[in-house]
Amino acid sequence: MLPELPAVAWALLAVSAFVVGISKTGLPGVGTVSIAVFAAVLPAKESTGTLLLLLILADVFAIIAYRRHVEWRMLLRLAPAVVIGLGLGVLFLAVADDVVARRVIGGILLAVIAITLLRRRAQRAVVEHQPPQRVAAAVYGGLGGFTTMVANAAGPVMSMYFIAARFPVKQFLGTGAWFFFLVNVSKVPFSAGLGLITPEGLWLDLLLAPLVCIGAVVGLWVAKRIDQARFESIVIALTVVGALYLLLRP
């Protein structure tokens, strides 16, 4: 029931599953590498459903770690726009073929990288000149809902919003953990209905789940011990390569 893949592809999937765990508990944004790898190794649309279940598993670890640090009013403010964004994402996946989906995922990843770089270079300006709360919730919530449905790539988008809200670190991580858990769980019936969750994908998830758990535990340990700026630079470079591959792949 497992997909037939070369040894290199299996190795990349294993590393990506490990990275999924780390990204949820210690290094937000690193997960874009996993998105690129899964979409390159598996059929692009199917990759989103397969990766989704692994993300939910990692979300559980993040909730346990930061369960006491969540701003529920912020999540309620985002909810309407996120629902609209999810709906648009479902419609897109229903009509797009695998090639279009792969190209869009690659484009979204490049946009996500641009947002991340902008955040790193202009973080103070974002904090000091934040837009009105309702406008920000509508823009970031809608974009976050669409990108998470199409490519599981809402992390950097929502990070910008949480930074603009001036969240302390633990509140940032706790609110983000609950946001992505609730959104990812709500995506399951849509992904199943669109055929993105397959028997082969479920077996693959079962095989990779232990690596996600290990990565989540390691993420908690390394969060305070790694040079964040250098690590992010490496991750961004690898993600650019993965995104370009998706865009240029015939």
UniProtKB/TrEMBL annotation:
Belongs to the 4-toluene sulfonate uptake permease (TSUP) (TC 2.A.102) family. Its main location: membrane. The chain crosses the membrane at residues 49-67, 74-94, 100-118, 139-164, 176-197, 204-223, 229-248. GO terms for cellular component: plasma membrane. It is a multi-pass membrane protein. The lineage of its organism: Bacteria, Bacillati, Actinomycetota, Actinomycetes, Micrococcales. InterPro entries: TM_pro_TauE-like, TSUP. It is found in: Cell membrane. Keywords: Cell membrane, Membrane, Transmembrane, Transmembrane helix, Transport. This is Probable membrane transporter protein.
